[in-house]
Specification:
mainly beta, Leucine-rich repeat, LRR (right-handed beta-alpha superhelix), 2 domains, 12-stranded parallel sheet, two-stranded parallel sheet, kinase activity, leucine-rich repeat, repeat, ubl conjugation, Putative leucine-rich repeat receptor-like protein kinase
Length: 274
Amino acid sequence: MLHYLNLSSCQLGGSIPTSIGELRRLAVLDLSNNSLAGHLPITLGNLSQLITLRLMLNMISGYIPWQLGFLQNINDLEMDNNNLSGHIPSSFGNLTKLNMLSLSWNYISGHIPPVLSHIRGLQNLALHHNKLTGIIPSSFSNLTMLRGIYLNFNFLFGSIPGELGVLPHLLHLDISSNNLTGTIPSSIGNITSLSYLVLSSNKLTGSIPQEIGSLEQLAYLDVAHNVLMGVIPSNILNLTGLQTLMPEANSISGTILENVDQLFNLQVLNIHHN
């Protein structure tokens, strides 16, 4: 019985046949980087032994079948860079062994299902460049293994959940280019593993919290194009690993530039339109 099927980058066309569901012992299915079109067959849900499903970089359209929620052994589910639409199935909350979920660069709409917080081992969540609306679920605080959250370029609204501050392993947080409001929660300063923080192109108000100066691993900070006021906290100068600082297009003031030479790794500083 076939356990491993890798047909990536083979210039395949047409659609995925429904008979794929007969490969009941399949553990790895990689059809990425082809020209596959049509809809995802619901028979993919029959592949109960599947650990890896990689369908990115195709032209697959239509809804994501809820039957994929039967793939309870799956670790890696990547369907980015297609033409998928509809909602993220709530049945994905059953995929409790999932480490990677990538649905970016599609046309997926609706809310982010709070049941994704049941996937306690999830390490990377990539939902960027879609048409998602609603709020960022505060229950993401349960996903304590997360390394990366990428929700940028959607239509999310509401505030940034302060509960994200309890994620001890988070390296990358990009929630830019949404419609988020409210202030930057001071609890972000608790994510001491954070190296990449992008909050730009929202409608955030208030000031940059002083607690961000506690993020000693931070290399990239982008809060541009918001409605922020006040000053850049002086303890930002403690972030000696900072390479990019982008607070432009806000209403920020202050004299941090007098000591910016203390950031000896800084390569990009953009403060225009303040």
